[in-house]
C-alpha cells in the first residue's frame, strides 16, 4: 500500500430487530403475527445472520415491545458470527450496574457487542434537552471508564460516585463501540466528545455531507475521530417499477390520524431529528420522493427514521455507494415486514455484491 493513501474501514451492513412493535405488512395496520415477541424477533435476527448481515440493531422503548437486554441475552448464544447493536436509554439503569450487564452480554457474544446509546427521557419524566444530553454524556463517560476496566471517580450534575469496575469484563477488556445519533447542537457535541460512530437518519446527499463535515470538525476539536452511520429503510425489487409499487402498497391502508398517533408514541417524537424528517416529507414531490430513490412515505406512520431507499438492486447499490463515498461506514437498514425484507435484501443486494462489499 502506498504511504499516505487512505483506506476506508470495511463497510458494515446491519439490519433492524423490530423489538418495539414496529413491524407491518401495511403501515399503520397492526398484525398480531408481527407484534414483537421472542419468536418473531428471534426469527428476524437469525434471518439477518443467515443472509449475510454483519450486525443487528436491537431498539429500546419503554411503552412498546419487549426488553432489549433480556432479548439480547437470550439470542446471543444462538448466533455464530453476528454482532448485536444493543440500544440502551441513558439514565434508565444505574451506570455501574449497566456496565456489568453489558460486560456479561459481551461475553455471551464472544466479544461481538456494540452499544447504541439513546438520549431519551426516562419513562414518567420530562427533562429539558440540554440537561438530558448532559446526563447522557455523563453516562457515556462512566460506562466507558468502567468497561475499560478502570475505577471511576465522577462528580457531575447527575451522578456522584466513586466505584471500582465490575468483576465482569468484556472479552477485549475494553469498552465496545458506542453508536450515537442526534441532530441538535447538544447531540452533535455529545457525539463529538464521547461516541465512536455517529448515526444519522435519512436525508439528502447534500445534507448528509454537511452533517458529516460538521460533526467531524467538532470531533477534531475534541482530539477525536469518528466513524459515521446511516439509518434508512430499504424497498428493493427486481425492477424500479416493482419497488415503487411495493412502496405504495405499504402505505395503501394507512389512515393519517393513526399515523399521527403512532409517531406520537415515541419518547423522542419532539426531537430535532424527528422535526427534520417532517421537513423532508413537506418538501417531497407529490409521490413522496425528496431526491432520486429516496422516498419519505414511511415517515407518515413512524417517528424517527422516516424514509426509504426505493429501487432495483443496481439503484439501491448506487445509492448506498453514494453515501459511502461521503464517509458512511455503517448502514443500519430495515424493511416491512422485517424478516421478508431482510431475506430480499440479502438475495438481491448483499448476495450479488462484488467481493469487498458494495
Write the layout of secondary structure elements.
Layout: E1 12-16, H1 38-51, E2 55-58, H2 68-75, E3 83-89, H3 95-108, E4 113-118, H4 129-147, E5 152-155, E6 160-163, E7 178-181, H5 185-194, E8 197-200, H6 205-221, E9 227-236, H7 240-250, H8 256-264, H9 272-283, E10 289-291, E11 294-295, E12 308-311, H10 313-326, E13 328-334, H11 338-350
Parallel strand pairs: 1-2, 1-13, 2-3, 3-4, 4-7, 7-8, 8-9, 9-12, 9-13
Antiparallel strand pairs: 5-6, 10-11, 11-12
Helix pairs in contact: 1-11, 3-4, 4-5, 5-6
CATH topology assignment:
TIM Barrel
- Number of DSSP-assigned strands: 13
Instruction: Assess the beta-strand content as a share of residues.
Output: 15-25%
> Ends: how far apart?
21 Å
Tell me about the biggest sheet?
8 strands, parallel, barrel
Shape call: globular
Task: Please give the count of helices.
Answer: 11
H/E element string?
EHEHEHEHEEEHEHEHHHEEEHEH
Structural class: alpha/beta
Uncertain regions: pLDDT < 50 for 5+ in a row? Answer: 1-6
Quick summary:
It contains 11 helices and 13 strands. It has helices at residues 38-51, 68-75, 95-108, 129-147, 185-194, 205-221, 240-250, 256-264, 272-283, 313-326, 338-350; strands spanning 12-16, 55-58, 83-89, 113-118, 152-155, 160-163, 178-181, 197-200, 227-236, 289-291, 294-295, 308-311, 328-334.
What does this structure look like?
By secondary structure, the protein is of the alpha/beta class. The protein has a single domain (12-350), classed as Luciferase-like domain (TIM Barrel, Alpha-Beta Barrel), CATH 3.20.20.30. Helix content is 39%, strand content 18%. The chain is built from eleven helices and 13 strands. It has helices spanning 38-51, 68-75, 95-108, 129-147, 185-194, 205-221, 240-250, 256-264, 272-283, 313-326, 338-350, and strands spanning 12-16, 55-58, 83-89, 113-118, 152-155, 160-163, 178-181, 197-200, 227-236, 289-291, 294-295, 308-311, 328-334. The radius of gyration is 20 Å and the shape is globular. Mean pLDDT is 91; it is low at 1-6.
Amino acid at each position: 500500500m502506498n504511504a499516505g493513501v487512505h483506506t476506508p474501514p470495511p463497510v458494515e451492513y446491519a439490519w433492524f430487530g423490530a423489538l418495539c412493535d414496529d413491524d407491518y405488512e401495511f403501515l399503520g395496520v397492526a398484525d398480531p403475527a408481527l407484534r414483537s415477541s421472542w419468536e418473531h424477533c428471534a426469527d428476524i435476527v437469525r434471518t439477518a445472520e443467515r443472509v449475510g448481515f454483519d450486525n443487528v440493531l436491537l431498539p429500546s422503548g419503554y411503552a412498546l415491545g419487549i426488553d432489549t437486554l433480556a432479548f439480547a441475552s437470550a439470542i446471543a448464544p444462538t448466533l455464530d458470527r453476528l454482532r448485536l447493536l444493543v440500544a440502551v436509554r441513558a439514565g434508565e439503569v444505574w451506570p455501574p450496574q449497566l456496565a456489568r450487564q453489558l460486560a456479561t452480554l459481551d461475553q455471551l457474544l464472544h466479544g461481538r457487542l456494540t452499544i447504541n446509546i439513546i438520549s431519551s427521557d426516562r419513562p414518567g419524566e420530562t427533562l429539558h434537552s440540554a440537561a438530558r444530553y448532559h446526563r447522557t454524556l455523563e453516562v457515556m463517560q462512566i460506562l466507558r471508564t468502567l468497561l475499560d476496566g478502570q475505577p471511576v471517580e465522577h462528580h457531575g450534575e447527575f451522578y456522584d460516585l466513586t466505584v471500582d469496575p465490575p468483576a465482569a469484563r468484556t472479552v477485549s477488556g475494553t469498552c465496545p463501540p458506542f453508536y450515537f445519533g442526534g441532530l441538535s447542537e447538544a447531540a452533535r457535541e455529545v457525539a463529538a466528545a464521547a461516541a465512536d460512530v455517529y448515526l444519522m437518519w435519512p436525508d439528502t446527499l447534500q445534507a448528509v455531507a454537511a452533517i458529516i463535515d460538521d460533526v467531524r470538525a467538532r470531533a477534531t476539536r475534541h482530539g477525536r475521530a469518528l466513524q459515521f452511520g446511516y439509518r434508512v429503510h430499504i424497498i428493493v425489487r427486481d425492477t424500479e417499477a416493482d419497488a415503487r409499487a411495493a412502496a405504495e402498497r405499504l402505505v395503501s391502508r394507512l389512515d393519517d390520524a393513526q399515523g399521527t398517533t403512532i409517531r406520537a408514541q415515541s419518547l423522542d417524537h419532539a426531537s430535532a431529528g424527528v422535526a427534520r424528517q417532517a421537513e423532508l416529507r413537506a418538501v417531497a414531490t407529490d409521490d413522496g420522493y425528496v431526491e432520486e430513490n429516496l422516498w419519505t412515505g414511511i415517515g407518515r406512520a413512524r417517528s424517527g427514521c422516516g424514509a426509504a431507499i426505493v429501487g432495483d438492486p443496481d439503484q439501491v447499490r448506487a445509492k448506498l455507494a453514494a453515501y459511502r463515498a461521503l464517509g458512511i461506514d455503517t448502514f443500519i437498514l430495515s424493511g416491512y415486514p422485517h424478516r421478508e425484507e431482510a431475506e430480499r435484501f440479502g438475495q438481491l443486494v448483499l448476495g450479488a455484491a462484488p467481493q469487498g462489499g458494495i
